């Protein structure tokens, strides 16, 4: 994939004046449901109507999609609304059926991307297709695995490629369903700036009230589009009810998003500056998360010192840390003065936490 510009043609040819939008229900439930949502979205910014036909679920016994019958409903969507259609494929049988029903855009889910065997099977089934194929990031934060899946498709002479950033699984409890790990998406863009990158705020957040903020961050980071799950009755959806929005809310989100366009050198500067600032915002939030975790560990040390009746300040340990961090900081282009000030502040906050525990 040395020349990723070849893979951008399909998005350039669309000549959109807004980000690419893929929207529709998490799962196709009934023909009536699919068509109702499609008709409510047809006069909007939505470019592709999506619906899950086969739903890979974490545990058996959950709703796993209506199957091939749903492809007929997608065909009706195209006939009645003129919108192009999209669905997820996870194996050769899915690919064959989707192509047979003329689905315009296929995406490969996070659970499939983790397996080189599945990716190769899908690549072989799609070889030479002119359909658009998007690859979601794997469930674990592994950039090489993500890129490897795309490369398998590219090697199979599939040129209309792109990627979907849907966040990554974590054992930690966070405000996200899947943590964004924005730095991985940024690195992805740096490696392949001309490969279309779509953000999936529905799966990142797991909550409809967070979708706007994540979408705005994605656009500030120069993502090319959004995939947002949309249902006319989200609370009663058969899958992922909490993360779906109504068509009315989706239209409002698209109106409220700040979309920066390139028109002249001054606006180019503003756009690039906004992108860099968005990257700093992401990193700043990561710093706060890490510092929060560090202080929780300090609380644990404080509890242990209280139990053993040990003094808070351990000078030998502190000097060892400081010397090591100064050297580590220098290797990363940070001045000794800055590292000293930063770690003294961190150390003082850690002492404060431990004293609260000991004197509690």
From TrEMBL:
<dbReference type="InterPro" id="IPR006218">
    <property type="entry name" value="DAHP1/KDSA"/>
</dbReference>
<feature type="coiled-coil region">
    <location>
        <begin position="259"/>
        <end position="286"/>
    </location>
</feature>
<feature type="domain" description="Chorismate mutase">
    <location>
        <begin position="267"/>
        <end position="358"/>
    </location>
</feature>
<dbReference type="InterPro" id="IPR052899">
    <property type="entry name" value="Class-I_DAHP_synthase"/>
</dbReference>
<dbReference type="InterPro" id="IPR013785">
    <property type="entry name" value="Aldolase_TIM"/>
</dbReference>
<dbReference type="InterPro" id="IPR002701">
    <property type="entry name" value="CM_II_prokaryot"/>
</dbReference>
<keyword id="KW-0175">Coiled coil</keyword>
<dbReference type="Pfam" id="PF00793">
    <property type="entry name" value="DAHP_synth_1"/>
</dbReference>
<dbReference type="InterPro" id="IPR036979">
    <property type="entry name" value="CM_dom_sf"/>
</dbReference>
<dbReference type="Pfam" id="PF01817">
    <property type="entry name" value="CM_2"/>
</dbReference>
<protein>
    <recommendedName>
        <fullName>chorismate mutase</fullName>
        <ecNumber>5.4.99.5</ecNumber>
    </recommendedName>
</protein>
<dbReference type="InterPro" id="IPR036263">
    <property type="entry name" value="Chorismate_II_sf"/>
</dbReference>
<keyword id="KW-0808">Transferase</keyword>
């Amino acid at each position: 994939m040395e020349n990723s510009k070849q893979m951008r043609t399909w998005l350039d040819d669309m000549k959109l004046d807004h980000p690419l939008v893929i929207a529709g229900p998490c799962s196709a439930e009934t023909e009536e449901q699919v068509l109702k949502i499609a008709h409510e979205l047809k006069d909007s910014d939505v470019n592709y109507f999506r619906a899950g036909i086969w739903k890979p679920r974490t545990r058996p016994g959950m709703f796993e999609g209506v199957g091939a019958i749903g492809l007929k409903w997608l065909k009706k969507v195209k006939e009645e609304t003129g919108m192009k259609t999209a669905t997820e494929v996870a194996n050769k049988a899915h690919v064959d059926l989707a192509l047979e029903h003329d689905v315009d855009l296929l995406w490969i889910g996070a659970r499939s991307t983790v397996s080189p065997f599945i990716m190769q099977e899908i690549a072989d089934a799609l070889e030479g297709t002119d359909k658009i194929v998007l690859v979601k990031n794997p469930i674990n934060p592994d950039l090489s695995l993500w890129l490897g899946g795309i490369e398998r498709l590219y090697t199979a002479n599939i040129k209309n490629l792109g990627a979907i950033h849907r966040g990554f699984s974590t054992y930690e409890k966070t405000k996200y369903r899947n943590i964004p790990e924005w730095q991985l998406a940024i690195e992805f863009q740096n490696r392949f700036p001309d490969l279309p990158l779509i953000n999936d705020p529905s799966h990142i957040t797991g909550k409809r009230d967070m979708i706007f903020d994540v979408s705005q961050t994605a656009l500030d980071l120069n993502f090319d589009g959004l995939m947002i799950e949309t249902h006319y009755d989200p609370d009663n959806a058969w899958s992922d009810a909490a993360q779906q929005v109504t068509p009315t809310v989706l239209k409002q989100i698209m109106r409220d998003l700040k979309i920066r366009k390139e028109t002249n050198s001054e606006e180019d500067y503003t756009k690039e500056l906004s992108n860099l600032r968005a990257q700093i915002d992401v990193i700043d939030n990561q710093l706060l998360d890490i510092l929060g975790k560090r202080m929780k560990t300090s609380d644990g040390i404080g509890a242990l010192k209280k139990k053993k009746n040990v003094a808070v300040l351990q000078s030998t340990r502190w000097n060892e840390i400081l010397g090591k961090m100064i050297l580590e900081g220098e290797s990363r282009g940070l001045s000794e003065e800055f590292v000293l000030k930063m770690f003294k502040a961190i150390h003082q906050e850690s002492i404060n936490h431990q004293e609260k525990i000991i004197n509690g």
